[in-house]
Structures are given as C-alpha cells and as structure tokens.
C-alpha cells in the first residue's frame, strides 16, 4: 500500500499554523483486462454459438472477480444482461446478428473492463428446384444434378 498524510495550512495565519492528518493507506488494485473470442464470425440462423472471455491479469491469484455477459441485437437500443451468464464462456442459439459483451469487475476496487464481439447470422438458403440428368444409372456412371435457390437468401 501507499501511505499518505495530508498537511493543512491556513494561508491567513501566522507561521506554524498547520496540522497533519493521521497516515492512511491507499491500495492500488490491478484492473482486469478482458478479451472476447469466437470460433465463427458468420453462422446460419438457429446456430449454437459459444463466446469465450480470456483474462489478462497482472495478479493471476486474483480471486475477487465477477463476470457478466450481455447481448445486443438490432432490436435492442442498449446491451441486455443475460441472466445467469456469469462464467468465462457463454453458449446460446442465435437467429439474428448479435453483439456479445463481457464485463469483468474486481469486487474490491470496482475496477472493471469490457470487451465485445459480433456474430453475424446468415439466412438458411431455400432450395426451390432440383433436377437430375438421369435417375437410373449404372454403377460408375455420372449424373448431373441441377439446383436452384432463392436469390434473396444468397449472401
């Protein structure tokens, strides 16, 4: 800890009119640093995703930390707390592009850090039409398959 005293001196008083406080300690706590990672930046609708937070701690023995995940979609104006998502990893199913934010707080000092990442959701393609050049072939022969999908679902 850093030890401090405060000296108070009156400007309008004669010399020697001052007082000192008792010593007090100030503890400088290391601020945690968070880094969020994902496996895939793009997934299909309904995909299960896992986001992981990695901590960079100056003191690896630090145990007074609390974690919380938040999400934000196009429908949200701000981040929404995810109830119960208080671990370093969070797994969920998403149907729209979602931003994930992780917050780590040192409960003794109040020091905190956040990091976020976005997972983009692609619509599942819709197959409109499939045809084959032949439906009856001999072993080892080739067949050509044609497929068509909705243009709106292409990204």
Can you lay out the helices and strands and say which pair or pack?
Blueprint: E1 2-4, E2 7-9, E3 18-20, E4 24-26, E5 33-38, E6 42-44, E7 47-56, E8 65-72, E9 80-81, E10 89-94, E11 98-106, E12 112-122, E13 127-132, E14 145-149
Parallel strand pairs: 6-12
Antiparallel strand pairs: 1-4, 2-3, 5-7, 7-10, 8-9, 8-11, 11-12, 13-14
The counted number of beta strands is 14
Helix content: under 10%
Task: Give the integer mean of the pLDDT values.
Answer: 87
CA(first)-CA(last) distance = 57 Å
Describe this structure in words.
The chain has no helices and 14 strands. It has strands spanning 2-4, 7-9, 18-20, 24-26, 33-38, 42-44, 47-56, 65-72, 80-81, 89-94, 98-106, 112-122, 127-132, 145-149. The strands form 5 sheets. The protein has a 5-stranded mixed β-sheet, with no helix packed on it.
């Amino acid at each position: 800890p850093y030890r401090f005293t405060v000296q108070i001196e009156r400007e309008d008083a004669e010399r020697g009119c001052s007082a000192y406080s008792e010593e007090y300690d100030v503890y400088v706590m290391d601020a945690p640093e968070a880094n969020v990672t994902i496996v895939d930046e793009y997934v299909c609708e309904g995909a299960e995703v896992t986001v992981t937070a990695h901590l960079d701690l100056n003191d690896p023995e630090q145990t007074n930390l609390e974690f919380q995940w938040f999400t934000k979609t196009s429908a949200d104006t701000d981040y929404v707390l995810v109830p119960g998502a208080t671990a370093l990893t969070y797994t969920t199913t998403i149907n729209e592009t979602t931003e994930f934010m992780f917050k780590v707080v040192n409960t003794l000092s109040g020091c905190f850090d956040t990091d976020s990442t976005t997972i983009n959701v692609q619509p599942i393609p819709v197959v409109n039409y499939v045809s084959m050049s032949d439906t009856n072939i001999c072993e080892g022969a080739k067949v050509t398959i044609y497929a068509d999908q909705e243009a709106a679902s292409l990204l």
